[in-house]
Amino acid sequence: MSLKDCINIALKNNPNVQISKNNVKLIQSRVGQAKSDFFPTIGASGGYTGSNMWNNSGITGGNDYYYTAGISLRQLIFNFGKSNAQIKMQKFNKISAEFDLEYINLKTAYDVKSAYYGVLAAHALVDVAKSNLEINKRQYAQIKAYFDEGLKSRIDFVNAEVNLSNSEIELIAAQTAYENTIVKLNNAMYVAYAPSYSIKNTESFNLEEDWTDVKFLNIGNYKQLEEEVNKPNDAKIEASEVEPLNYTTPTLSSKVEKSDILENYVFKPLGLSFEEALDRAREGRPDFKSYLAAKEAMEEALKYAKKEYLPSISAQAGYTWRESDAPTTNSFNYGATLDLSSVNIMKTKYKVDEAKTQLDIAEENINLIEKNIFFEVQDAYINMIQLEKQIPLYQKRVQQALENFELADGRYGVGLTDFIELQDARSQYLNSQQEYIQTIYNYNIAKSKLEVAMGEI
Question: What is the DSSP letter of 409?
């Protein structure tokens, strides 16, 4: 799966996205309710009425009964903009909710990116740990051969054993860290029971292989992990398997185990100025647009509060049918009314004050998020640019550390240096690779943060 595939899965599975979508639907219903003021109100009625009359002497005066049926229609004509203010307010609330949904999508995508790059980095570090294990296996076998010939001291042999054990432990730790990054990626996609799958490289994190296998080991089953570390092709090399030593040519134990995991890594800077990033953030940040829409909604709410005491003009018409002992009657009535609801002047005043305060809060929120956007873009941009400059330097340092390790290995093979210098060179090579991978990961995270700051998935 590509990064885009993983993001799409997360957007489908994230409950927060679904909640936000339902919130948009909810506010859309409120828009419809506000518009309903301009739709006619239809009423219908029907009934039967009967009465019996008699006096104190028990003499019946007669019975009276009648059937009635009627229909009425009432239409709002004008209410001084109150309904329009309500409609606009709910429309702006809907726009705000849509931008809130977009912002949740943005944050979901960032969480997936962070976890995705974490898996790629952890995969690379596992390969580096495997390479380091192979180096130590070969060094152990070679030093054992030297020791058996009486050419090296026992302390070198013991240190080689310790280094081999440490490299096995480090590989297990790298595997465990890799497992944890897989869990984080599945969590970011909201996938509880994920099958085995592979993820592709990205343009800014292109490993030697074009895919990374995502396969769980049983974390509780360390025996399986030990078997993975000590499988036959990784078995310790015995001294008898080592080629005879040539004392005139340096013995290069690191040559075959050189890690090429990022050797062909091509780094392409984003090529974006700070001003361009800031402009894109102002245009693209959905949370900023949400606050702008919320401010518009508060303005309409203030208009409504100011007009709440104004009357409404309506027209109505109705038809009534009545049947009884008397001749059947039909009637049609029509007219217009001016409805002036009772007004609590004090309550209306404080409603207006509340609406003004809500508008002030909305304006301050816009002021606050404008400043936050500036600082977020600035922070992410500075970090990204710094890492853009560091990546080529770390890449060069890996090459230098490898060359130094090869030279130290050759010098140790012909007795021109000691074991400590050899191990220092090996450690520098290992550390430089790990730092190089970590820097590439950090760059991708900084770039992703800048994309979030600019409102881009």
Answer: H
CA atoms within 13 A on the CB side of 232: 0
Q: Which two tokens stand for residue 272?
A: 């974006």
**Is the CB of residue 437 less than 8 Å from the CB of residue 262?**
yes
Encode 261-272: b = buried (16+ Cβ within 10 Å), e = exposed.
bbeebeeeebee
Q: CB-hemisphere CA count at 13 Å for 410? A: 9
Question: Could you identify the residue written with the tokens 């015995």?
Answer: 238
Nearest to 104 by CA among 187, 30, 21, 9: 21
At residue 210, the pLDDT reads: 65
Helix (H) or strand (E) segment spanning residue 114: helix 82-148
Residues 323 and 391 sit within 8 Å (Cβ to Cβ): no
Q: Quickly list DSSP for 410-433.
A: HHHHTTSS-HHHHHHHHHHHHHHH
Handedness of CA 122, 128, 134, 136 (dihedral sign): negative
380 has a pLDDT exceeding 80 = yes
CB 181 within 8 A of CB 441: no
The pLDDT tens digits of the residues spanning 327-348 come to: 777 888 888 887 877 677 788 8
Distance from CA of residue 445 to its chain's centroid?
A: 13
Contact 244, 418 (CB under 8 A): no
Residues 6+ apart with CB under 8 A from 211: 198, 199, 200, 201
Question: What pairing do the DSSP bridges indicate for beta strands 329-339 and 312-324?
Answer: antiparallel
User: Residue 205 forms beta bridges with which residues?
Assistant: 202
Residue bearing tokens 């997360």:
10
- Which contiguous run of DSSP H or E holds residue 32? helix 15-35
- Residues in Cβ contact with 10 at an 8 Å cutoff, skipping those fewer than 6 apart: 108, 109, 111, 112, 188, 189, 190
Q: What is the 3-state secondary structure (H, E, C) of 260-308?
A: CCCCCCCCCCCCCCHHHHHHHHHHHCHHHHHHHHHHHHHHHHHHHHHHC
User: Could you tell me the two tokens for 64?
Assistant: 């009276």
- Residues 224-263 have pLDDT tens digits of 444 544 554 443 434 344 343 333 333 334 343 555 655 6
CA-based angle 44:46:52, to the nearest 5? Answer: 155
pLDDT of residue 239: 39
- Point out the least confidently predicted range of 36-50, 62-76, 172-186: 62-76
Contact 208, 261 (CB under 8 A): yes
> pTM of the full predicted structure?
0.74
Closest CA to 178 of 125, 133, 114: 125
Q: In the beta sheet, which residues pair with residue 332? A: 319
Give the pLDDT score at 320: 86
